[in-house]
Amino acid sequence: AQTVTQSQPEMSVQEAETVTLSCTYDTSESDYYLFWYKQPPSRQMILVIRQEAYKQQNATENRFSVNFQKAAKSFSLKISDSQLGDAAMYFCAYRTDPYGGATNKLIFGTGTLLAVQP
Amino acid sequence: DVKVTQSSRYLVKRTGEKVFLECVQDMDHENMFWYRQDPGLGLRLIYFSYDVKMKEKGDIPEGYSVSREKKERFSLILESASTNQTSMYLCASSAPYRDRGLYSPGYTFGSGTRLTVV
């Protein structure tokens, strides 16, 4: 079974600095999707960034980028120029590529609570 | 612009009560999911449905059931609420796989129902 591990329960960063959140996963599959979701105090889960395993290029969305190491099964999130609005719980998640009818389940890590200091 | 709506933001119920958590999506998605979120445990899948009247157990289905009579609505039922079911419940929906180039594998989440069982 696939698992997702986030080893940092809490992180803190100064405003305008850069922070990296770690995520590792375990799977025997070759095709899959990885995600980072943000959950602010409003509780609304927001998709931050996603990575297709078949793509070698690391995904980037404005100040958010990932370091996807497929062989090491690592998927870290880098937030550059951190802002106060980035303070939230961040979840790493894995989903099987459903081509061929595989399950659609999204498997989550336990989350990292990010604090941004002014 | 709300696309997944959970009927209650906060709910307080008594032990032994039958509890219904409602979720409605307006994106015509085939797949719908119920997750439970607890501190330190992340999000855990309770049940999911990939079509009307279809349902599958997730990782923690015990004590829960679901109903999907219409495509847009997915209900989570606690047959006899217990204090260990006090938690945050998140509903989500996703599109089915059609073509890799067009596929959007992310989920859209509701804003959660915080249930307290006393």
What's the short version?
The complex is a heterodimer of chains A (118) and B (118). Chain A is mostly beta strands and 118 residues long.
Search tags:
heterodimer; A: 118 residues; mainly beta; 6-stranded mixed β-sheet; 4-stranded antiparallel β-sheet; 12 strands; B: 118 residues; 3-stranded antiparallel β-sheet; globular
Query: Residue ranges of chain A: pLDDT <50 for 5 or more in a row?
Result: none
Q: How many beta-strand elements of chain A?
A: 12
Q: What level of helicity do the residues of chain B show? A: under 10%
Our measurement of the CA-to-CA distance between the termini of chain A, rounded to an integer number of angstroms, reads 41 Å
Order of secondary-structure elements of chain A: EEEEEEEEEEEE
Q: From the structure provided, what is the oligomeric state, counting identical versus distinct chains? A: heterodimer
Q: Beta-strand level of the residues of chain B, as a percent range? A: over 45%
Main interface: chain pair and counts: A-B, 24 and 26 residues
Task: Characterize the structure shown.
The complex is a heterodimer of chains A (118) and B (118). Chain A has 118 residues and is mainly beta. Chain A is built from no helices and twelve strands. In chain A, strands 2, 5, 6, 10, 11 and 12 form a six-stranded mixed β-sheet that branches. Chain A has a four-stranded antiparallel β-sheet with strand order 3-9-8-7, with no helix packed on it. In chain A, strands 1-4 form a two-stranded antiparallel ribbon. In chain A, a hairpin with a 4-residue loop joins strand 8 and strand 9 (74-79). With 118 residues, chain B is mainly beta. In chain B, the strands form three sheets. In chain B, strands 2, 5, 6, 7, 10, 11 and 12 form a seven-stranded mixed β-sheet that branches. The N and C termini of chain B lie far apart (34 Å). At the A-B interface, strand 11 of A face strand 5, strand 6 and strand 10 of B.
